[in-house]
Amino acid sequence: MLVLGIETTCDETAAAVVERSEGPDGSSGPGKILSNVVLSQVSEHAAFGGVVPEIAARAHVDALDRIIAKALADANLSIGAIDGVAAAAGPGLIGGVIVGLTTAKAIAMVADKPLMAINHLEAHALTPRLTAGVQFPYCLFLASGGHTQIVAVQGVGDYTLIGTTQDDAIGEAFDKTAKLLGLGYPGGPQVEKEAVRGNPSRFALPRPMHGRAEPDFSLSGLKTALRLEAERIAPLSDQDVADLCASFQQAVVEVIHDRLRTGMKVFRARYGTPTALVAAGGVAANEAIRKVLQRVAFEGGIKLVVPPGELCTDNGAMIAWAGAERLALGLSDPLDFAPRARWPLDEVAGPQTRPARVAQQGA
């Protein structure tokens, strides 16, 4: 099964083609990425210290057609060889979502191919099945600029939220910290870089929600405490900035350790032992955070699966894979599917098992 995937929910214009195959029992092993083209808009937004929605949407319009053409060319395929077209239909910046979904609808209509309108978060959730063939059920830690969630992934379309942030997402907190300290955009990698040469023990920053029974997160108090410390010692030297970044990152790492351990306990109590702890989203590219994820997995006696860095951030391959997973179950969407700025992962509908009609066809 060959699926074209289109991603335009934020500031990456991306398209990819993936191949999905399955064994005699219907289970899917790792997929194959035939092409994965990503155009970053970092330079367009750098001067503003963050993504400007209107600029992002216009950039998608300018670039998407050639990005799709390159993805098909890199895969050495024509559109006629594709079995379906998938596009991120939300959540995200609505202008960008409209660009990608409308383009996918046009391709699906002209080429007479099924359309899969994909939840961007579902694509992150299913990426470990593309890269490592992870079997259900598994525990997902989804951390990005807009989302911080612990999710029980029990099947395609079967997602239960275990824990979430009460305010800022982890990636958002990193970006706001970078902006506060005058670092460049995107902020997360800049904070991580500065933290390497800083003293993580210099500032006594809080660990919000630590020890709570509910596996939720809160980052706003930590962000406020960091700002107060920065104001107290201003003007900041280079070493002050490094120490603030290191102290902030260490606090986040310890919060993740505590909150994820609690989330894993809830998962086991409700669903049994997960096949893996899976991390997805751009925050998973942070090396210090990866280390604490490995620690949580080791303590829980399960494996940690983290996709390669280029598949943790937004990309077309994850959209194409989610489309292939849904198409294999006989699921597609009408051409009037509406783009969504907000679309919680646990509201994604879909069966856990293959419909009998599709199974008989061997699709």
Q: How many β-strand stretches?
A: 10
Strands of the largest sheet, in order across it?
3-2-1-4-5
Largest sheet report: 5 strands, mixed
Q: Roughly how many Å apart are the termini? A: 9 Å
Explain what this protein looks like in three dimensions:
By secondary structure, the protein is of the alpha/beta class. Helix content is 45%, strand content 18%. The protein contains twelve helices and ten strands. The chain has helices at residues 42-45, 53-74, 94-111, 120-132, 170-180, 187-196, 220-232, 238-271, 287-300, 309-312, 316-328, 356-361, and strands at 2-7, 12-19, 32-40, 84-90, 115-119, 138-143, 148-155, 158-164, 276-280, 303-305. A five-stranded mixed sheet has the order 3-2-1-4-5, with helices on both faces. Helix 4 packs across helix 11 (316-328). The longest helix is centred in the C-terminal third of the chain and has 34 residues, at 238-271. 53% of the residues are buried. The model is unreliable at 350-363 (pLDDT under 50).
